[in-house]
């Protein structure tokens, strides 16, 4: 049996839709249940529902063979896993944002973010020394309340920035969700994993053609 770690939250429904389009028969339970382990015996697959930031942990430790994780999460926490497919779902980007017409404080610039590693690497590469302030959400609050000069956060529609009077200054990276695989599982369960990758890749490709 293949164990797939799925992120709860906004990626989940898009991932379920992608799996269904790829021919996996996932019961209605997937749309309404609060169970954290969902088994589909007909497909020989078991799904575990994890926090998005934890998917890589389950896959790296091998308790899940495969997982679905945002590229942002993969960039933040380097994991010993294979990234085998861009699923092209949950599209967004990572950006530097802040209050308009403001400069970074020269002496002790502060950057608030949920992605401390990505943010420090980015500013290091820009040759800027900043203090990183790690927050767990509502990052846009930080510049409004004087906690930070800049934020590094996800932007999708841009609505959260706009409604809070913030602007984007720099685009760091485009983000989509990825299929990740445990290296040992890839050796031991190569056939079912290859089949999953092939079926998903075909659906992703068809989706691309539809939008072209
Ligand atoms: N506004 C957005 N639009 C599209 N994709 C997004 C957006 N925000 C985040 N994502 C993507 O979806 C993934 C999961 O985001 P989600 O908001 O569900 O979880 P989270 O904020 O990490 O966790 P939680 O809110 O449960 O603490 C992110 O890692 C990112 O890849
Ligand atoms: O550009 P938009 O379409 O407005 O989306 C961007 C927002 O979505 C995410 O927040 P989320 O809803 O996950 O809440 P969070 O603050 O708890 O991370 C992200 O952190 C931004 O705040």
Automatic annotation (TrEMBL):
<dbReference type="GO" id="GO:0005524">
    <property type="term" value="F:ATP binding"/>
</dbReference>
<keyword id="KW-0368">Histidine biosynthesis</keyword>
<keyword id="KW-0963">Cytoplasm</keyword>
<keyword id="KW-0808">Transferase</keyword>
<comment type="pathway">
    <text>Amino-acid biosynthesis; L-histidine biosynthesis; L-histidine from 5-phospho-alpha-D-ribose 1-diphosphate: step 1/9.</text>
</comment>
<dbReference type="InterPro" id="IPR013820">
    <property type="entry name" value="ATP_PRibTrfase_cat"/>
</dbReference>
<protein>
    <recommendedName>
        <fullName>ATP phosphoribosyltransferase</fullName>
        <ecNumber>2.4.2.17</ecNumber>
    </recommendedName>
</protein>
<dbReference type="InterPro" id="IPR018198">
    <property type="entry name" value="ATP_PRibTrfase_CS"/>
</dbReference>
<keyword id="KW-0547">Nucleotide-binding</keyword>
<comment type="subunit">
    <text>Heteromultimer composed of HisG and HisZ subunits.</text>
</comment>
<dbReference type="InterPro" id="IPR024893">
    <property type="entry name" value="ATP_PRibTrfase_HisG_short"/>
</dbReference>
<keyword id="KW-0028">Amino-acid biosynthesis</keyword>
<feature type="domain" description="ATP phosphoribosyltransferase catalytic">
    <location>
        <begin position="51"/>
        <end position="201"/>
    </location>
</feature>
<dbReference type="Pfam" id="PF01634">
    <property type="entry name" value="HisG"/>
</dbReference>
<dbReference type="GO" id="GO:0003879">
    <property type="term" value="F:ATP phosphoribosyltransferase activity"/>
</dbReference>
<dbReference type="GO" id="GO:0005737">
    <property type="term" value="C:cytoplasm"/>
</dbReference>
<dbReference type="InterPro" id="IPR001348">
    <property type="entry name" value="ATP_PRibTrfase_HisG"/>
</dbReference>
<comment type="similarity">
    <text>Belongs to the ATP phosphoribosyltransferase family. Short subfamily.</text>
</comment>
<keyword id="KW-0067">ATP-binding</keyword>
<keyword id="KW-0328">Glycosyltransferase</keyword>
<dbReference type="GO" id="GO:0000105">
    <property type="term" value="P:L-histidine biosynthetic process"/>
</dbReference>
<comment type="function">
    <text>Catalyzes the condensation of ATP and 5-phosphoribose 1-diphosphate to form N'-(5'-phosphoribosyl)-ATP (PR-ATP). Has a crucial role in the pathway because the rate of histidine biosynthesis seems to be controlled primarily by regulation of HisG enzymatic activity.</text>
</comment>
């Amino acid at each position: 049996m293949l164990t797939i770690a799925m992120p709860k939250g906004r990626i989940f429904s898009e991932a379920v839709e992608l799996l269904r389009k790829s021919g996996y028969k996932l019961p209605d339970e997937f749309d309404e249940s609060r169970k954290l382990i969902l088994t589909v015996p007909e497909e020989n697959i078991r799904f575990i529902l994890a926090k998005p930031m934890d998917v890589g942990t389950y896959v790296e430790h091998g308790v899940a063979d495969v997982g679905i994780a945002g590229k942002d999460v993969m960039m933040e926490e380097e994991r010993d896993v294979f990234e085998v497919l861009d699923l092209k779902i949950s599209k967004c980007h990572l950006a530097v944002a802040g209050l308009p017409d403001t400069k970074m404080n020269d002496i002790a610039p502060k950057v608030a973010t949920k992605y401390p590693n990505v943010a420090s690497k980015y500013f290091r590469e820009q040759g800027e020394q900043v203090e990183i302030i790690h927050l767990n959400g509502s990052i846009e609050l930080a510049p409004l309340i004087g906690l930070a000069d800049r934020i590094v956060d996800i932007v999708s529609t841009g609505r959260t920035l706009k409604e809070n009077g913030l602007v984007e200054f720099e685009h760091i990276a485009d983000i989509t969700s990825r299929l990740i695989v445990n290296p040992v599982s890839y050796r031991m369960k190569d056939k079912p994993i290859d089949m999953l990758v092939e079926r998903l890749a075909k659906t992703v490709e068809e989706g691309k053609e539809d939008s072209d």
